User: Fold Inducer of phenazine A from Streptomyces taklimakanensis.
Amino acid sequence: MSHRATLTPQMLQYAEKFDDRGDIRWLPYLMYFHAADHRSEVVNTDRLGFRMSHGPDGQVAAPGGPLPEGPVRLLAGSSTAFGIGAGSDRHTLPSALWSRHAPSVPWLNFAGRSHNSAQELLLFTLYRHLLPKVDEIVLFSGFNNLGLSRLPASVRGDHGAFFNCNDFYGQMEELRARHRKASGGFGRFGGRRQAAPEPADTAVPELAEQIDLASELTLRHLDSWRLLAEGMGAKLTFVLQPLATWVREEPAPQEKLIFEELDRISNFGEVYGDISAMSAREAYSKELQVGCERMGVRYLDLNPVIADAIGKDDWLFVDRIHFTDEGHDLVAGLLARQLGLS
Assistant:
């Protein structure tokens, strides 16, 4: 049996419905979101696909219901905020905050797995009307935009690339090709159709440009979050999410086994090698911090905070970006203390 299956058996349940290689639920506007009304020992979602969060006295809440009367706090972001890696809903960041580390106000899980900053913002604008009064919004994000900034300009467009975008554009081009073939080369009114497009640019931007692209996009969308939060009377914080290689150079023993196994079946090093370096995190964090200060949004880079709080053998990650149950609990506690949440 593999180290991953032995050490993190819960990941098998995420693979079925909550993985890019699994059964993706495609949606208009958002492109994709989690399976709705999903039930398992590991993951449970509401009627819309939001993950359930748990409170200190057995309460359960989600944006699609059940909802507390209010006020509430939101943890938004992508898969780390959603809780990929947690052994159950009770061990995600929103649940750890609500049940143990900052329980004075209920926390809702408002995250979307594999979302970029545009999708995170759109998810909030589409479902904000369901919420009671919101006191606090913590946007726990940052890595996906940086990872996606490596893709060529032809797929980044005006609002950034998204995961599975190559599949999307490839399928669209196949559809156009079938239409061209079926029409014999002529359009609806007899005019000759456009020829197939030239191959798209595939050049990968240099690291400095990737950081600039990701920072600009993240801050642009964060400014819209700021306007929405101000209108709701909610406090907004942007947290640069942790990455295993941004926290420490040498992984814990269990992490080392898992990472080596994952590297044999994926191309993480090839795809993310340069942006996973400590120096890349420092440059990216500096740009985000300056932008947040300029717009008056509280900013926190959790990576050095975690690095100062752990020992060399503390096992935090199930892969390079998602936490174990103990990792979720540690990070939730650090987050609550750093932000002064009760």
Q: What stands out?
A: The first strand starts at residue 25 and ends at 27. The chain has 15 helices and nine strands. Confidence is low (pLDDT under 50) at residues 186-196. The radius of gyration is 21 Å.
